[in-house]
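Hi R.,

As promised on Friday, here is the backbone we talked about, encoded as structure tokens. Could you run it through your design pipeline when you get a chance and send me back a sequence?
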């Protein structure tokens, strides 16, 4: 396989899923979230199961972005099926004492991936999200964007996703087990 892939076990089958596969599932609307989901799983699977392939049925996930983290949720759903198998928690009330940059929707870029009894906690490092992206994203949620702003926001999403995919996960997240 010429490109990087995430491996996950579904019953007796090992599935290999690429970032491009995740984009085909989600689309390009919240592309940065899809890229984050890929990097979350890349780091989490390596740390929680250094010599194995994780089983879908043993994975659960908490997203500090809440319901508005659709790119992250779709990315995790495609690979792990946490949403359809009722192992996704998006209750933002859990965030009070957790780190992570504030998101435009009021949530935080804080995540927990649990495999069996072990959990890795991940907070997006400060300074990774451009101020222009945050401003336009917040405006899109509250008052809407004109055509020029909507095009610029999509450009920023594409650039941000491309940047995320060039980074090692450890460059993106503060993490602890």
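Update: got your reply. Pasting your designed sequence below so it's all in one thread:
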């Amino acid at each position: 396989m010429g490109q990087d892939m995430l491996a996950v076990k579904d019953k007796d089958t090992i599935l290999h899923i690429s970032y491009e596969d995740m984009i085909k599932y989600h689309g390009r609307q919240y592309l940065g979230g899809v890229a984050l989901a890929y990097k979350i799983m890349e780091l989490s699977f390596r740390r929680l199961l250094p010599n194995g392939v994780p089983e879908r049925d043993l994975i659960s996930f908490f997203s500090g972005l809440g319901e508005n983290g659709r790119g992250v949720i779709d990315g995790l759903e495609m690979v792990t099926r946490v949403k359809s198998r009722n192992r996704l928690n998006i209750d933002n009330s859990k965030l009070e004492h957790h780190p992570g940059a504030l998101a435009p929707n009021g949530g935080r870029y804080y995540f927990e991936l649990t495999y069996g009894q072990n959990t890795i906690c991940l907070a997006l490092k400060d300074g990774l999200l451009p101020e222009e992206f945050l401003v336009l994203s917040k405006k899109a949620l509250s008052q809407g964007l004109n055509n020029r702003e909507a095009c610029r926001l999509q450009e920023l999403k594409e650039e941000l996703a491309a940047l995320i995919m060039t980074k090692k996960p450890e460059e993106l997240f503060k993490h602890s087990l």
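One thing I noticed while checking it: The CA atoms of residues 105 and 138 lie 7 Å apart.

Thanks again,
M.
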